[in-house]
Specification:
The complex is a heterodimer of chains A (197) and B (422). Chain A has helices spanning 17-27, 31-53, 56-72, 83-101, 110-114, 121-140, 143-155, 159-166, 170-196. Chain A is an all-alpha fold. Chain B has 422 residues and is mostly helical. In chain B, helix 13 crosses helix 21, helix 14 (270-282) packs parallel to helix 20 (354-369) and helix 18 packs antiparallel against helix 19 (335-348). The N and C termini of chain B lie far apart (119 Å). The chains are: A mainly alpha (197), B mainly alpha (422). The A-B interface holds A 31, 34-36, 38-39, 42-43, 46-47, 50-51, 54, 56, 60, 63-64, 67-68, 71-72, 107, 110, 113-114, 116-117, 130-131, 134-135, 138, 152-154, 158-159, 174, 177-178, 181, 184-185, 188-189, 192, 195-196 and B 15-16, 19-20, 22-23, 25, 47, 50-51, 53-55, 57-62, 64-69, 72-73, 76-81, 83-84, 87.
């Protein structure tokens, strides 16, 4: 089992011999071999998808679609290369398409999730309100700004990676990120004062 | 834009660098300058704190939001395998329609590319329905409507043609003993000395007596069968385009002849101009004259001249018989048969005016007298071309109103002939 970075990516991961064997077995018709690959990589991919699309149902659907597409195009995959980055790219592209296509939705469990972790009830309520407000503020962002902010913050992508992933110039990455953050700061200012108190 | 006294970094630049700092993209060499600015500038320092707070909250949000429901990962591999099998089963069934997009969305298709296909289908349906109605009507105008020939460059306005046709009425009335009633063709025929001679003397062997019965059969044609004939003849009339073009040249040549008649010849009167032209067209000198180079330029004479000539000659539209006659003439095996065809054509198409009868009978008589029958037939063909093309031009350009008038007139004539026959 390889170790994953914070965002679930494996930087410069070498080709996994176990992956290559499972892929060859899958291509020979052994479905359970592919099930082992799913079992191995489902968690980091789910985490990435969940961070980006927020809803569990959406992440689940995208994750299954990701593995389905990987299976359907497995013959095109070069087994000498690492398997996970290829899977990650499929999942990321699916997530980006979904984010562009769908209206951004707040997670239903926001309040429940955010109400824990704070001992002081007043601070807990304030923090919960802050997080809910932040979710709403992010939802209000234009799609292109929201997407790049989520990729930067939740996937910890560098400017260069964002540029390659989104097909835009690095300067555009910087300006788009700055505009998104300044909007969030303006919208969140009342809540920031409450949290600061 | 403010600038702190302790640093050369502006607030605007500092705010840009704040984002780079948050993203770990600010070069280490610039860290000290930015931190120095933040220590001196309360506004930028506050902005940095707010951005950091938002970033931290965002990170915390992600950490809590990525927890999957319990036992989700236990069942996912088998769910993926089941989905793969579903996809394969779905792919096997629609293999017959492999062109179809995998994620076909009917609504998106209709509002996307599909709208063009739908519009085209609707247009085809509309055209089909409209043309079906027209076909069911079976009216002659669908065959000889003016639109069919609207692209002819020398088209004559229908109003002008109508006026020209009305001009003919006095002439017809003058020929008719009953004024506005139908003329008495046989009487006209008998008034012509050469025609009477021809009737008194049996036609030469080239004109068998059986033709009368054929003519009679044609007279018995019903209105429906005539419409069918018209429809069947429509393509042939259209195929007359070349004939019309050649005939316009002949018309121009004839017009030139009218304007400059040969010396020594009596002046041509309007009533007999067409007949005279016809007779002249039979003679080689006129034909050669019409083929002279100056006749080529004269062929560019507006068709109005041809129309005027045809009006003088009382030509009317009767295209189906003309087409039939032309077709039969081409396929005729002998000169006699060809002559019969054209005689039949002129009579059965109600060209029983003095002009036509005299022309045909004169032609028949001359043909019979010709020793070189081959040459005579050639000349006859040349002369007939003159008439045929005028017929075709008129049929094309006079339009339905004229046609209907002529048809009513011919129908009256048919009735008259029926009652007059012994």
């Amino acid at each position: 089992m390889p170790s994953f970075s914070k965002n679930g990516r494996i930087e410069n991961a070498p080709a996994d011999s176990g992956d290559a064997e499972a892929i060859r077995a899958t291509l020979r018709g052994e479905r359970q071999a592919f099930a082992r690959l799913v079992e191995k990589y489902q968690r980091p991919l789910y985490a990435m998808l969940r961070r980006l699309v927020r809803q569990h149902e959406d992440a689940d659907d995208l994750l299954q679609e990701c593995f389905l597409r990987a299976f359907q195009h497995l013959e095109e995959f070069e087994v000498s290369r690492p398997f996970y980055p290829w899977l990650y790219r499929i999942a990321l592209n699916l997530a980006l398409s979904s984010m562009r296509r769908r209206k951004w939705q707040l997670p239903m469990e926001s309040l429940d999730l955010l109400s824990s972790g704070e001992e002081d009830p007043e601070k807990s309520i304030a923090a919960s309100e802050f997080h809910v407000a932040l979710e709403r503020a992010i939802a209000k962002l234009p799609a292109e700004q929201r997407t790049i902010l989520l990729l930067r913050t939740r996937e910890d992508m560098s400017y260069q990676e964002l540029s390659q992933t989104l097909g835009i110039e690095v300067g555009t990455v910087m300006s788009r990120l700055a505009r998104a953050r300044e909007k969030l700061r303006a919208w969140m200012r009342p809540h920031l004062e409450a949290v600061a108190e | 834009m403010s600038k702190t006294p302790t640093s050369s970094l502006t607030c605007s630049r500092a705010k840009e660098w704040l984002h780079l700092l948050l993203d770990n993209e600010l070069p280490l060499a610039d860290h000290e300058r930015l931190l120095g600015h933040l220590q001196a500038c309360a506004q930028c320092s506050a902005a940095y704190r707010e951005l950091r707070a938002i970033e931290a909250a965002h990170t915390e949000l992600d950490a809590r939001a990525t927890e999957a429901p319990e036992a989700y990962f236990d069942s996912l591999p088998q769910k993926v395998l089941a989905r793969i099998e579903q996809a394969e089963a779905a792919q096997e069934k629609p293999r017959l329609v492999t062109w179809r997009p995998r994620s076909f969305n009917l609504r998106a298709y209709i509002w996307g590319k599909g709208k063009y296909a739908l519009a085209f289908a609707a247009m085809l349906t509309l055209v089909f329905l409209v043309t079906r109605d027209l076909r069911e009507q079976k009216q002659p105008e669908t065959v000889f409507g003016e639109r069919k020939y609207a692209d002819l460059p020398e088209s004559v306005p229908s109003s002008e043609a109508q006026a020209a046709h009305e001009d003919l009425q006095p002439l017809e009335a003058a020929q008719s003993p009953t004024g506005g009633e139908r003329p008495a063709p046989l009487e006209n025929l008998s008034t012509r000395p050469d025609a009477k001679d021809l009737r008194d003397e049996p036609l030469p062997a080239t004109a068998p007596p059986a033709e009368k019965s054929d003519i009679h059969q044609r007279v018995e044609l019903t209105a429906d069968s005539e419409r069918m004939l018209l429809q069947a003849a429509a393509p042939r009339i259209e195929a007359f385009a070349d004939t019309i073009a050649a005939a316009e040249s002949a018309i121009a040549g004839a017009q030139q002849f009218v304007n400059n008649p040969p010396g020594g010849r009596a002046r041509l009167y309007p009533e007999s101009k067409a007949e005279a032209l016809y007779e002249e067209a039979e003679t080689p000198p006129v034909l050669s004259k019409a083929r002279q180079p100056n006749a080529v330029s004269a062929a560019r004479t507006p068709v109005a001249e041809g129309k005027r000539l045809s009006q003088t000659a009382h030509f009317t539209a009767n295209d189906s018989r003309l087409a039939q006659a032309l077709s039969a003439s081409v396929q005729a095996q002998s000169q006699t048969e060809r002559l019969k065809i054209w005689q039949d054509y002129f009579v059965s198409s109600q060209r029983d005016s003095a002009t036509y009868y005299a022309a045909v009978e004169s032609l028949a008589r001359r043909l019979a007298a010709q020793s070189d029958s081959s040459s005579a037939v050639t000349q006859m063909q040349e002369a007939l071309t003159f008439y045929q093309t005028m017929e075709a031009i008129l049929a094309a350009r006079w339009g339905r109103a004229i046609y209907d008038q002529e048809r009513a007139r011919l129908q009256g004539l048919l009735n008259w002939k029926k009652s007059a026959r012994p």
